């Protein structure tokens, strides 16, 4: 992927690059370039944050022409296969969440108590990744999952503790 080189692309240029990648992929796989697939790609790249396929389907249908649930599921599978969408399994929660992947390298902080997921980016992490001996791997993208108890939950927990001690 051209992820690293295109780090500072604007939204419009990202969409252009992403569509080009998708076209290349569909051609290579001998798949049809249907307007529904491109509309979904564009919609996904207009979204911020994480989503599940079922909500994507409902949102998409609300805003656009009729599209079948199967087409939505199938298109997301294709986008995963060509690395334009990334799938996350945060913690042991049953369902998977997805997000756009191109030009979108970042990390996730996950609270094991309230299950909140926050994103962060850090230059130090980035420079360390590029210094690591990765057995010849040419890095395209990466994502760290950092689990713990968030500040809000820590506060609540210490309040609960205080109350317990009083009683
Ligand atoms: Zn994310
Ligand atoms: Zn929390």
Kindly describe this structure.
- Strands 4-3-5 form a three-stranded mixed sheet, with no helix packed on it. A two-stranded antiparallel ribbon has the order 1-2.
- It has six helices and five strands.
- It has helices at residues 11-29, 35-46, 53-63, 69-81, 123-131, 151-166; strands spanning 85-88, 97-100, 107-111, 117-120, 145-148.
- Residues 1-7 have low confidence and may be disordered.
- Helix 1 (11-29) packs antiparallel against helix 2, helix 2 packs across helix 4 (69-81) and helix 3 (53-63) crosses helix 4 (69-81).
- Helices cover 48% and strands 13% of the residues.
- Bound molecules: zinc ion (2 copies).
- The site of one zinc ion has 7 residues, from helix 6.
- One zinc ion (ZN) binds at residues 50, 99, 106, 108, 119.
Strand order across the biggest sheet? 4-3-5
- The string of secondary-structure elements, in order, is HHHHEEEEHEH
Ligand kinds = zinc ion
Instruction: Kindly report how far apart the N and C termini lie.
Output: 59 Å
If you compute it from the alpha carbons, what radius of gyration comes out, rounded to the nearest whole angstrom? 19 Å
List keywords for this structure.
alpha+beta, three-stranded mixed sheet, 6 helices, globular
Helix-strand blueprint:
Blueprint (H helix, E strand, L loop, with lengths): L10 H19 L5 H12 L6 H11 L5 H13 L3 E4 L8 E4 L6 E5 L5 E4 L2 H9 L13 E4 L2 H16 L1
Parallel strand pairs: 3-5
Antiparallel strand pairs: 1-2, 3-4
The structure holds zinc ion (2 copies).
């Amino acid at each position: 992927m051209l992820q690293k080189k295109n780090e500072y692309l604007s939204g419009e240029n990202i969409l252009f690059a992403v569509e080009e990648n998708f076209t290349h992929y569909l051609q290579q796989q001998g798949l049809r370039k249907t307007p529904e697939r491109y509309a979904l790609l564009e919609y996904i790249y207009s979204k911020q944050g994480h989503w599940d396929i079922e909500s994507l389907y409902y949102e998409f249908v609300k805003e656009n022409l009729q599209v079948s649930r199967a087409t939505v599921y199938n298109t997301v599978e294709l986008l995963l296969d060509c690395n334009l969408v990334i799938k996350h399994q945060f913690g042991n929660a049953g369902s998977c969440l997805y997000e756009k992947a191109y030009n979108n390298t970042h990390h996730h902080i996950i609270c094991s108590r309230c299950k909140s997921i926050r994103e962060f980016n850090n230059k130090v992490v980035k420079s360390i990744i590029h210094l690591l001996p990765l057995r010849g791997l040419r890095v395209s993208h990466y994502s760290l999952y950092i689990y713990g108890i968030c500040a809000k939950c820590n506060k609540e927990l210490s309040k609960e503790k205080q109350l317990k001690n009083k009683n």
